[in-house]
């Protein structure tokens, strides 16, 4: 199941920042618009969410912060100082943030946002409700993968985005393997796709968004009763089947409009709308822009 799942993933990596904390310092970061990753290069300490949840971190741990969640990194021992970052830094391809005043360097971590999607439409970390920390220290070559991403970002060579995505995919594969072997993992999509009935309905939605799916027709694909399917689907994906169908349609429409080559009428038809005006209304409700405005942006 994991191999099948990984074949349908796409990964986009935004520029990383190098965050450095001296002993006795706390670094507080704003909630990212999409999931944020921290790769711990050196040191031990804590990542703390706004609700007070504390998660221990150490070298070669990969930490995933849910979208919108402000959080802090702390070194071990007594906290004496704090640096608060209110917005994403601007500057060179790899930013450097230093929480300290020249004291002993305790923690170094790579911080960056990553967009991981299943079938190019469904966000892997969309419904992550709490910080996820995975210890990858026992896996050979993990530090080299992270350093390769940084090197690509600093060099700025042609094809860097594709190569960064491929390298990040390797890190994610190791994370998924760890999570799959852990009976207490909390990544919703992995748990849902372990159920072949739900996986089949998700694939039907993503691969054929133009089909006039209903709860009944999707339940039939899953070989479940309507009520049992609707309940299981909502528990797995935190939304109704039709709500997810509409989301997938709009995300695929946005991707097609972004190419600038497909006429709006064809985009509407591709995702199951026979009326351009109805599609435009639905698209504006989803993105805040009409299809033409989105394409121009």
Would you kindly provide a written description of the structure presented here, covering whatever features stand out?
The protein is an alpha+beta fold and 297 residues long. Helices cover 41% and strands 24% of the residues. The protein has two domains: 186 residues, Regulatory protein AraC (Jelly Rolls, Sandwich), CATH 2.60.120; 102 residues, Orthogonal Bundle (Arc Repressor Mutant, subunit A), CATH 1.10.10.60. Helix 2 runs antiparallel to helix 3 and helix 5 packs across helix 6. It holds the Pfam family Cupin_6. GO terms for molecular function: DNA-binding transcription factor activity; sequence-specific DNA binding.
Helix-strand makeup class:
alpha+beta
Number of domains: 2
**How large is the radius of gyration?**
21 Å
Q: State mean pLDDT (0 to 100 scale).
A: 85
CATH architecture of the largest domain: Sandwich
Main CATH class of the largest domain: Mainly Beta
- Intertermini distance: 38 Å
Shape descriptor reads: globular
* Name of the CATH superfamily of the largest domain: Regulatory protein AraC
How is the main sheet built? 8 strands, mixed
Order of helices and strands: HEEEEEEEEEEEEEHHHHHHHHHH
Question: How many individual helices?
Answer: 11
Uncertain runs: none
Strand content bin? 15-25%
Number of E-state strands: 13
